[in-house]
């Protein structure tokens, strides 16, 4: 009997790994320091298989955690025993995954029937890369594809360079998808690439004047290995992959959080030293080839004036620092620029963004890219967390891509114009 139960438990465990049926995302609100201490212990609990969708425990903001079906009962009991309030944010993760997959299959079929690119769909790496080639082909005088290196699994890393000429002009860097599962960031960047090209072609302000003085480099997929992995369908859990795919010191756990691996207070608080952690920082600063490639490219260019990174979700527009609560020397100006940019963004659909330093809006994070950029003298460094605020989290329906991209574009445009008008 005991053996039978053990086998049954094993089968159940295997089954649950395959599907996320019944997994819920809970939004948990700490109300006291005691609660925070209790919750911090959770991060160390590996038995429950918790997946943190947002980070940092604080009284000021809730934290979202995906809880596997098998742990749900025990976990909720644990929260209740500790008087910690929570709400169910996503009732069944698998349902959203199924819906997303069905949508992608439908969109793939559509692709053959209609010509032209479907911006209102999530696409795999191959399709995004071929989109880039056709964009370059349609705008050869404006856009070139720059290969800045290869990934751990030997995939090329590309940035689109929008330039009207000149040598090493002041430049703006925009990247998306450094965290693989944040699909709306890649999808928005695709739409934005197209929009930059169209606005230039149609002579729509302020893009032509921005491009008369500055170059724009846009990297749509900053973590290609992770992105490809997040599209593998044999196990639904792959969709929620965040990190790179490199081997670590723990054979059971792959990947480094590419936004904790930069040479900016590397290994400080706000990053994990455990290879199994979602925010594992890696063995050393820039140990990850993807980070090193971007950092080397930015440094060898030497004339970047703005560095922006697109993430999801939470609707935040943030500036340095993440590594601690000290104000950056340019904090008042960065705050003002971010505030105006978020107003521009809001003017489209009324989407509300919160503005502040990374430390004060999300959590302490060391080794983050915008801190690195800022410390290298790139003053206008910002990180975006796009839609939503948690209804769908990483699984934002594809019919929100275009409106997300459109509003984000208004903020990016504001910042680029500001950078253009404030040379330094
Ligand atoms: C939870 O609240 C109840 C009732 O207010 C109280 O008796 C109990 O001690 C609290 N438990 C914890 C762990 O704080
Ligand atoms: C933040 O980090 C900087 C650089 O390491 C340090 O000089 C400063 O004292 C720190 N501030 C706080 C509030 O910890
Ligand atoms: Zn992210």
TrEMBL record:
Keyword Transmembrane helix: no
Residue ranges of every copy of the Peptidase M14 domain listed in the record: 121-419
Keyword DNA repair attached: no
Active site: 385 (proton donor/acceptor)
This protein's UniProt keywords: Carboxypeptidase, Disulfide bond, Hydrolase, Metal-binding, Metalloprotease, Protease, Secreted, Signal, Zinc
InterPro entries per UniProt: CARBOXYPEPT_ZN_1, CARBOXYPEPT_ZN_2, CPA_M14_CPD, M14A-like_propep, M14A_act_pep, Peptidase_M14
Cofactor(s) listed in the protein's UniProt record: Zn(2+)
GO terms of biological process kind: proteolysis
CDD domains: M14_CPA
One Gene Ontology cellular component: extracellular space
Top-level lineage group: Eukaryota
Signal sequence, start to end: 1-16
MF terms (GO), sorted A to Z: metallocarboxypeptidase activity; zinc ion binding
Pfam families attached to this UniProt entry: Peptidase_M14, Propep_M14
Localization, UniProt: Secreted
PANTHER family per record: CARBOXYPEPTIDASE A2, PROTEASE FAMILY M14 CARBOXYPEPTIDASE A,B
Similarity-based family: Belongs to the peptidase M14 family.
Name of the protein in question: Peptidase M14 domain-containing protein
Species, as recorded: Phoxinus phoxinus
């Amino acid at each position: 009997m005991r053996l039978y139960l053990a086998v049954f438990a094993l089968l159940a465990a295997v089954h649950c790994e395959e599907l996320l049926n019944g997994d819920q995302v809970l939004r948990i609100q700490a109300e006291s320091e005691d609660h925070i201490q209790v919750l911090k212990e959770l991060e160390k609990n590996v038995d429950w298989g918790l997946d943190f969708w947002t980070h940092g425990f604080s009284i000021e903001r809730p934290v979202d955690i995906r809880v596997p079906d098998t742990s749900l009962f025990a976990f909720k009991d644990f929260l209740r025993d500790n008087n910690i309030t929570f709400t169910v944010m996503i009732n069944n993760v698998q349902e959203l995954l199924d819906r997303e997959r069905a949508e992608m299959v439908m969109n793939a079929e559509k692709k053959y029937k209609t010509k032209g690119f479907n911006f209102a769909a999530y696409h795999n790496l191959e399709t995004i890369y071929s989109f880039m080639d056709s964009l370059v082909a349609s705008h050869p005088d404006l856009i070139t594809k720059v290969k800045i290196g290869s990934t751990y699994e030997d995939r090329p890393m590309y940035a689109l360079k929008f330039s009207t000429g000149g040598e090493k002009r002041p430049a703006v860097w925009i990247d998306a998808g450094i965290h693989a599962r944040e699909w709306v960031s890649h999808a928005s960047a695709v739409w934005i690439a197209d929009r930059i090209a169209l606005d230039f072609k149609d002579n729509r302000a302020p893009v032509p004047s921005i491009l008369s003085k500055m170059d724009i480099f846009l990297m749509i997929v900053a973590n290609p290995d992770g992105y490809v992995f997040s599209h593998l369908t044999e196990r639904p859990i792959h969709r929620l992959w965040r990190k790179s795919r490199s081997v670590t010191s723990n054979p059971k756990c792959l990947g480094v959080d590419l936004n904790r691996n930069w040479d900016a207070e590397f290994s400080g608080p706000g990053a994990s030293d455990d290879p199994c952690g979602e925010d594992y920082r890696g063995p050393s600063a820039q140990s990850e080839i993807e980070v090193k490639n971007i950092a080397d490219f930015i440094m060898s260019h030497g004339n970047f004036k703005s560095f922006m990174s697109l993430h999801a979700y939470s609707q935040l527009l943030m500036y340095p620092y993440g590594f601690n609560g000290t104000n950056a020397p340019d904090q008042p100006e960065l705050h003002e620029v971010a505030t105006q940019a978020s107003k521009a963004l809001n003017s489209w659909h009324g989407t509300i963004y919160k503005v502040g330093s990374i430390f004060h809006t999300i959590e302490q994070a060391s080794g983050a890219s915008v801190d690195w950029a800022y410390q290298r003298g790139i003053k206008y460094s910002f990180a975006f967390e796009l839609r939503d605020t948690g209804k769908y989290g990483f699984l934002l329906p594809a019919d929100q891509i275009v409106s997300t991209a459109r509003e984000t574009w208004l903020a990016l445009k504001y910042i680029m114009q500001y950078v253009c008008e404030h040379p330094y």
